[in-house]
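User: quick one, fold this
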Amino acid sequence: MDQLLLDSTVTRGAIVESHHRVHAAVVDASGRLIASARDASLTTHWRSCAKPFQVMPLLSSGGFDRIGWGDDQLALACASHGGEPEHVAIAESMLETIGMEQGDLACGAHEPLAQRGQKVLRESGERPTRLHNNCSGKHAAMLAHAHSSGWPAFGYERQDHPVQRDCLMEVAKWTGMPPSEIVQAVDGCGCVEFAVPLQSMARAYARLADAARRSASTPSRIIHAMQTRAPLGTPAFMPPEQARGGLEQLDGVVHPASIPSSVLAMRFALTAFWPGDLRTVEGSPPSRCSTGVVVRLSEPTLLTPAT
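Assistant:
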């Protein structure tokens, strides 16, 4: 197994501003840890990067298709969106199709994450709503799962609700962990989130990508939606070439800000590859997609994309 050194040092001028210890796990589709940095078994919070697995019960139950949703809705359910007009409109339409409205969302209102979303809202003179919450797509999908299954919508975000029990079982399946060993907590959006070892996260991503490559129905639909609907909004967390899938080869340098959240970043994280394995054709899925890469900064800091 390869041992990696991914620690980083941030300088401002000639002075070191901060040091950051980086833990990472690289796992293949068989579940084998093929490379790591520091502690690959470190248990940490998965938070929004588990969204593709949290939407799976709605898909596999047939509820998604009975409602009549498509790739836009699926992409938003997997995203931590920027609160731009396109995102808000899709989230609102998701609720309308199941006879609900934003007041049914358990997530609170906050300012849009995207600068464009903030500008549009500011110029309209309106206040942020729950639809602007970056997790409104996930919450709408969870309400849809409750609706299509005939369960009460009230409390859908709580650990003891059938929706969350289904999410837990899906996370257990893809990480290969017993449900009893998965730590559950409350995310910033008020919903259940999971804490698992980095190696287990990477295993889930590798299995998801491998299943999609083999054309398994639910994984294929999720990956397809995230890849084809990536341009919904502004590419805030990665270079435009990366968002479009136009990079012919990754050089192994992954900007930490590109790993969690947003349709674009999730699309990248879930088609994560060992350096040198990725060859893409514009608009086409990667030719190899069976390695999961998860990186965590021990001391997270606000990093801005390079210009």
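User: anything notable?
Assistant: The first strand starts at residue 2 and ends at 4.
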